[in-house]
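Render this sequence as a predicted structure.
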Amino acid sequence: MGDNKRFVYWIRRLSEIAMIGWLSMMLLVDLAVAVGAGGLQFLVPVCGAVGIVAVVLRRRYRIEGFAVLMACSLGVSLLIGAIDVVGVPGSAESGALLILTIGVLRHVEPVRRAATLSLVAMGVLMAEGGMRDYHNGGLAFSFMLFIGWATAAGVGGYLRFQQERRVEAIHTVRRSERLELARELHDLVAHHITGIVVQAQAARTVAEMKPEAVTPALDAIANAGVEALTSMRRLVSVLRAEDEAARTPGTSLADLRLLTERFSAGGPGVSFEVGQGIADGALPPEVMTTLHRVLQESLTNVRRHAPGTGWVEVDLRLHERTVRLRVRNYGSATDPRLSRLGGGFGLVGMAERVEALGGRLLAGPTPEGAWEVFAEFPLT
């Protein structure tokens, strides 16, 4: 997972360097043109330099840099056009405007503001081509700049569309997981309340025959109430929307082992190790249920994306005040579609469930060549 991040990091860095180098070469061309044309043409490289700075700082000052560059470009165009001197559109200036237009259409919210800024950029480019009319070539310059703007707008709009599709898909998965957590909240609280009611009825019956036995019964009722409140606090942010799901009060270690046995029956072998101190009563019910879902999703991903896996290791252990689940598969190359946590919507959903309980979920290749899913839950 770390290697993939470093690779992506360096690809982005090299792309950034190449883009800045390209704009710098265009700025040198603008300087050469300014030396030949003289006059106010020397203001054009200044706009190009402002554009390069705006591109470098675009992630921090995206709208501000875009606005400063447009104001500078429009001001130079109006000045050159007003005094009717020879002028040539700046290549670095125009290139920076097109790059920033792509970023604005992709990232600026809301989309109405992004569209407005891109249209203003088109007007600035048209003013640049029309008012810097070099030997009656303004129409040709305007046409070329419009083609460039249309291409940049198309690229930015497409990237925004893909990004919004991704965000919507992740939102759908997370909403589904939250509804599932809400069902579990209903089941867990119903389970605890049922126990409280039964113990309260028993305490009333015992009180009539053996009053001294009421105190232990009240302690049991109080403990059941504390467990119910703990479960509610962990999942209270989730709203319940459906009632048709199956009702189960929780998951046991036997369910986890049965899951691995069923997987082994139709696929590669699975070794399941449970560390010392882990028992059904040692873990909160909502943690056990989520462990089952993480294990199920991990094994499903092995079957779907790594069919040539030789074997799978499942390890469930206590570490200080946390419980950790590791699922590793060996003997098959890692699937690039799951090289990042965001690559699979199933893992996005599992991360949502784990984080709802205060834990964390990681997925990626290990130095030994295996693919690992790691989930950790606090027990405090």
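Summary. The CA atoms of residues 338 and 344 lie 6 Å apart. The mean pLDDT is 80.
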